[in-house]
Design brief:
6 helices, mainly alpha
């Protein structure tokens, strides 16, 4: 429990959320040609879904732990919209800003699926999250 409490420190959560956001931005706007090829096939849509699932969770835990307000569902929904909008902006930038990448509507759907799963998870375990928050 002590490890979990230390991982939920607001400064650490903010640092992790910012770094992961930068990682997604950089990875989405640069060429993937220089990356090593995997020996097995991994769907890029699965990578999108998992990345946005994690991105939502990092920002969610920062926001929930830092906040004194009680509007859990409202915050969860708002954050889901913000993270989804970020994903859409990244796709637009891929189509307009880079020559190495192109926008893909199915990437937006995969991003949304990852966010939806994360939102569903934090709604389902709301009591546990709030109990954890109150013990910090």
């Amino acid at each position: 429990m002590k490890l979990i409490k230390s991982l939920l420190e607001p400064k650490l959560l903010l640092t992790g959320a910012l770094l992961f956001t930068c990682f997604i931005t950089y990875g989405s706007l640069t060429s993937t040609g220089s990356l090593p090829q995997l020996d097995y096939a991994v769907s890029d849509k699965l990578i999108h879904a998992l990345s946005y699932f994690l991105l939502f969770l990092l920002w969610f835990f920062f926001w929930i732990i830092k906040s004194k307000e009680k509007k859990y569902l409202r915050k969860t929904t708002l954050l889901g919209v913000v993270v989804f909008s970020y994903g859409m902006v990244i796709e637009v930038l891929q189509g307009t800003l880079t020559a190495a990448r192109e926008a893909d509507f199915y990437d937006v759907i995969a991003n949304g699926a990852g966010i939806f799963c994360a939102v569903l998870l934090v709604i389902l375990i709301k009591k546990k999250i709030l109990k954890l928050k109150s013990s910090i």
